[in-house]
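2024-03-11 09:14:02 INFO worker-7 job=invfold-0412 stage=load source=structure_tokens
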């Protein structure tokens, strides 16, 4: 009987040892996941900072070109507006006269599709 209870005790001890190993494995796995997430977050922040720096460098490099292009566009716009304003002043009297002629001088004639009944 003593051998029987000693065998049971050995099995219980082995079961406790196995439970400890399983618990340690779970803790190890959990810690590895936390470490992996933290490392991924650091890598992501480093990548983000690198891309931000590249963007700022690109903006700084092309800022002068953008300002020059904008100045040229503004100049062209002003020239076109001045041309349109001059054309308006030159032709406004003619246009008003044509509009008034069309409205006031009505020809009274029958439509060509209208037939005598």
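2024-03-11 09:14:09 INFO worker-7 stage=emit residues=117
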């Amino acid at each position: 009987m003593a051998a029987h209870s000693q065998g049971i005790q050995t099995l219980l001890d082995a079961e406790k040892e196995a439970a400890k190993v399983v618990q340690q494995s779970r803790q190890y796995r959990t810690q590895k996941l936390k470490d992996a997430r933290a490392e991924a977050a650091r890598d992501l922040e480093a990548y983000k900072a690198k891309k931000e720096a590249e963007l700022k460098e690109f903006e700084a490099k092309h800022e002068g070109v953008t300002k020059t292009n904008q100045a040229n566009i503004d100049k062209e716009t002003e020239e076109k507006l001045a041309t349109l304003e001059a054309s308006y002043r030159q032709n406004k009297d003619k246009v008003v006269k044509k509009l008034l002629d069309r409205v006031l001088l009505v020809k009274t004639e029958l439509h060509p599709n209208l037939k005598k009944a």
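2024-03-11 09:14:09 INFO worker-7 stage=report msg="Residues 52 and 58 are 10 Å apart (CA to CA)."
2024-03-11 09:14:10 INFO worker-7 job finished
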